[in-house]
Amino acid sequence: MSGCEEYTLITDPESLFKINHPELPLSYYTGVLGMAGLTAYAGFFDVSKPKQGDYVFISSASGAVGQLVGQLAKITGCYVVGSVGSDEKVNLLKTKFGFDDAFNYKKEEDLNAALKRCFPQGIDIYFENVGGAMLAAVLPNMRMNGRIAVCGMISQYNLEQPNGAPNLFCLVAKRIRMEGFMVLDYFGTYNKFEEEIAGYLKEGKISVVEDVAEGIENVPTALIGLFSGHNIGKQLVTIAHE
């Protein structure tokens, strides 16, 4: 991985890898076939241990990770709901990515009530990308023996004093397994992941939406947009067209 630059000098050629599916867009290897995709795949299958019929909730669901988790959950036979920050993204989840339901958390006065509306039977799997108030609302809505895969907590990164979840005893009472993970621990599974996801892409079972900014001068704006929820899907910056 290099910096934000127009030209890169590779001093460690062993870090490069062959593109095995050149018939797919090259940009996919920065997203759905890259670290974001492997994060979604490992977090859902290895950490969450899904079963057909599970009720799955994903926060920040229109991002590069969330959109793939949702589609993998549907392929597995789960009921899937996502939370996002705009009505446009709600529509995208339901029409493009096949989510069963979605809601705009910015329009919900009570997140707990929103989750009860979407999951009257409770949640089996929560794929955590946000933290804070969303996690606090999710915990009492989890089912017995639920699983929480902690991928990130973007609402907390820039706070001087991060919020704590006030109801962690739910983990005990409901025998919930809450596990954090890092994609670096799953690099050894990349080949299996790549072949499976590439197959789904070619079969049309997985859709991809990317957010592309033009020009290296727009890197700061694109980066800041990640923390305000401006992007839809993997945020990319194009510096040259071949």
TrEMBL record:
<dbReference type="InterPro" id="IPR011032">
    <property type="entry name" value="GroES-like_sf"/>
</dbReference>
<dbReference type="InterPro" id="IPR036291">
    <property type="entry name" value="NAD(P)-bd_dom_sf"/>
</dbReference>
<dbReference type="GO" id="GO:0032440">
    <property type="term" value="F:2-alkenal reductase [NAD(P)H] activity"/>
</dbReference>
<protein>
    <recommendedName>
        <fullName>Alcohol dehydrogenase-like C-terminal domain-containing protein</fullName>
    </recommendedName>
</protein>
<dbReference type="InterPro" id="IPR045010">
    <property type="entry name" value="MDR_fam"/>
</dbReference>
<dbReference type="InterPro" id="IPR013149">
    <property type="entry name" value="ADH-like_C"/>
</dbReference>
<keyword id="KW-0560">Oxidoreductase</keyword>
<dbReference type="Pfam" id="PF00107">
    <property type="entry name" value="ADH_zinc_N"/>
</dbReference>
<feature type="domain" description="Alcohol dehydrogenase-like C-terminal">
    <location>
        <begin position="64"/>
        <end position="194"/>
    </location>
</feature>
<comment type="subunit">
    <text>Homodimer.</text>
</comment>
